[in-house]
Design a protein that fits this description.
Distance between the termini: 10 Å
Low-confidence stretches: none
Helix content: 40-55%
Largest sheet: none
Structural class: mainly alpha
Number of strands: 0
Length: 128
């Protein structure tokens, strides 16, 4: 959420997401928190509510968010929070990378695809 009264545009948020890995990881967590409880539990999008991950990104995004938050498959925080750039991330989450890219590349793609929601969060129009 913006504390300096600056209203972010989607272009500004996209530029931040293109260059800042931390912003990408924060975006993934915010999108995860917008998922409904049943979507989080199933790693699938079940509601057409324009909130959280779209169906194509729900499983990868949920897995990445769980990794970042140190959650197990039951969404219970049991592990230390991790980074998508951690060496083990490629081994654990590598199946979600696309076309020879890294886990961070896929996370960035997901964040950029959903950046309208990130803009709303940054501007205080949406709570995650």
């Amino acid at each position: 959420m913006s504390t300096d009264n600056h209203v972010y545009t989607r272009d500004e948020i996209n530029e931040i997401l293109k260059t800042n890995d931390i912003a990408v990881m924060r975006a993934i967590v915010h999108l995860f928190r917008l998922q409904t409880a049943d979507e989080v539990a199933s790693t699938r999008t079940k509601h057409q509510n324009a909130m959280g991950f779209c169906a194509a990104d729900a499983k990868a995004g949920t897995r990445m968010a769980r990794w970042l938050l140190g959650m197990n498959d039951n969404n219970v925080q049991r592990y230390p929070m991790k980074d998508l750039r951690h060496p083990l991330a490629a081994r654990v989450l590598g199946r979600y990378a696309q076309n020879g890219g890294t886990v961070m590349d896929r996370a960035r793609k997901i964040a950029l695809k959903h950046s309208a929601q990130i803009v709303a969060i940054a501007n205080g129009d949406l709570q995650s």
